[in-house]
Amino acid sequence: MKNNLSKRFEYAQTTSEQKEAFINQYIDDLSRTLKTLKTDDIIKTIDIIEEKLLSWKKIFIAWNWWSAATSSHMVSDLQKTTLGKNPQEKNESIKFKAISLNDNMPVITAWANDEWFDYIFSEQLETLWENWDLLIIITWSWNSKNIIMALEKAKQMWIDTVWFLWFQWGKAKELLDHHILVESDKYWPIEDIHWILNHLMTAHFQKQVKEVK
């Protein structure tokens, strides 16, 4: 039996023309996918997040797989970037109470090791929630048990739910209050657009933070 560890791989170099063709194809795919976004769905999402901001509710964000890093980035944008320049002078502003459920690694690994990985988001929600908070789930792993359990827990505890997702949504669809659909089956543009949506909304909220004389 051949040992798989003995396999060798070579890096296939390409010409400048091939690189240019690849770049143009990637940009074309991303542009086409962006054009499928429905403005009304984005407006509704902004309205939901804005309502939570103005009522001082918490916004929990949980992303799965490689997208977990985007959860941390979105929390940073909501908490800090929305305040614009000189944020230290805006202590009287209404601020986002945003929390990433991906960031506390001791809690995550405690649940994953002692119980099971399925519980890493739902049990944090049960500890931190209040009525009418918001849970944002952004993942292309639409049937992951930890995501489904988080959405089920949110429903039990009167937490609103929003999902940025791709064209296959699996079991999650029936548990959502609202979603933005990214119509693609390619991982790269899906995650690119998740970041674009985050930056779009961050830019909108930053624009709305104004000094009151």
* Rg, alpha carbons: 20 Å
Compute the number of structural domains: 1
Low-confidence stretches: none
Give helix % range. 40-55%
Could you give the count of β-strands?
5
Helix/strand-derived class?
alpha/beta
Shape from CA axes?
Answer: globular
Helix and strand element order: HHEHEHHEHEEH
Instruction: Walk across the major sheet and give the strand order.
Output: 2-1-3-4-5
User: At the fourth CATH level, what is the homologous superfamily?
Assistant: Glucose-6-phosphate isomerase like protein, domain 1
The main β sheet shows up as: 5 strands, parallel
> What is the CATH-assigned architecture?
3-Layer(aba) Sandwich
Beta-strand level of the residues, as a percent range?
A: 5-15%
User: How many separate helices?
Assistant: 7
* End-to-end separation: 78 Å
**Roughly what is the average pLDDT, rounded to an integer?**
85
CATH class call: Alpha Beta
Q: What's the CATH topology name?
A: Rossmann fold
Briefly characterize the structure.
The protein is an alpha/beta fold.
Structure notes:
The protein is about 45% helix and about 15% strand. It has one domain (about 40-210): Rossmann fold, CATH 3.40.50. The chain is built from seven helices and five strands; from the N terminus they run ααβαβααβαββα. Strands 2-1-3-4-5 form a five-stranded parallel beta sheet, with helices on both faces. Helix 6 links the parallel strand 3 (about 135-140) and strand 4 (about 160-165). With about 210 residues, it is of the alpha/beta class. The longest helix has 22 residues, at about 185-210. The mean pLDDT is about 85. It has helices at about 15-35, 40-55, 70-80, 105-115, 120-130, 145-155, 185-210, and strands at about 60-65, 95-100, 135-140, 160-165, 180. It is globular and about 55 Å long.
